[in-house]
Specification:
- The complex is a heterodimer.
- In chain A, 20% of the residues lie in helices and 30% in strands.
- Chain A has five helices and twelve strands.
- Chain A has a six-stranded antiparallel β-sheet with strand order 2-12-11-10-7-6.
- In chain A, strand 11 and strand 12 form a beta hairpin.
- The N and C termini of chain A lie far apart (92 Å).
- By secondary structure, chain B is mostly beta strands.
- Chain B has a single domain, classed as Beta Barrel (OB fold (Dihydrolipoamide Acetyltransferase, E2P)).
- Classes of the chains: A alpha+beta, B mainly beta.
- At the A-B interface, loops of A face helix 1, strand 4 and helix 2 of B.
Chain lengths: 232, 118
Amino acid sequence: MRADEKGSRERRRITGALLALLLASASPVLAQRPDLAGGWMLNGGKTVFGAWDLTDEGRRRFEAYDFRTDDPALKCIGASWTRVWLNPNVLVQITQAADHVRLRYEWMDLDRRIPLVDPAMPDPPRGSIAGHPALGRYAAWYDGDALVIETVDVAPGYVSTMEKWAGLPQSRRMRTIERLTRSGDVLTIEITHVDPANYRKPLLVTITYPRSKFELMEYNCMPEDAAVVAPR
Amino acid sequence: MMRRLVPLLLVAGAPLAAHHSVPVNFDQSREIAIAGVITEIRWINPHSRFRIDVKQQDGSVLEWLVEMGAANTMKRAGFPMERFAVGDPVTIIGNPGRRDRVVLLRTAVLQDGTKLSP
């Protein structure tokens, strides 16, 4: 090989590498994003609900919870993202695009389109779902192998309406961070609720979702069907 | 056909109807059986339900509500929903509700003895 050919090839290789580096630094969102796409379902997964350290106000609200009347799902409304993730038997379909991530939850037909933002932005654009005020406004970014979703501006309500955690409260001050990572066919969702009005320490919840072969189905929840019905 | 309340042995099971949270709404440490006639069938989300009329020993009739999983879940599980019809006698085995006259379906026993579990 002639020396000028070798030099030219070397220049192209270096230029290509520099270009790739430049693109990666200009678009960190695309460069490191994990592949979370596909269908996932809680069944067969595992839930670890951390200990909660309630403030006096938080304890008062927790103890006042009445499962017969206070569960927003009785009106087909999501209580919190933890509550949404905790529902078994329903599919979550994830798609990823350059500027957003879309999570379609079969439960209550929640269609969560989350803008990808620079986490350093003071007031990033956020998504929300009409009719679900307790699910707040959210934005996301990639952090290494994780998709991080930050939710703020939630309406006061309940982090969970299920199991022994039913009635754990949330206030308007609550900030929720969800970290989604994937290991093979398991999606792990690590949720941190920071709500100084109700908790002395952050509330941590970890939920795993195995991959699912099922297709997304319509839920069509109607409040008259979802409400607590009594025998006549 | 038997139309009375029968307490059964404790049987633990997997959650079927998570919308109302099974442990919050039903006593999973107990299992009961009720026998009656189906008066309403609703295959819906977040949880399907039957109403059944249960004849009491004094001849009066009390309605019970039978809750079960979401219609989507039942479809995915291949639960034979077409086997049920209004007017059919049925025995429901399940966990008693924390509300009065409500039961979470674990097994339905049809008139011909077929047992169906979602």
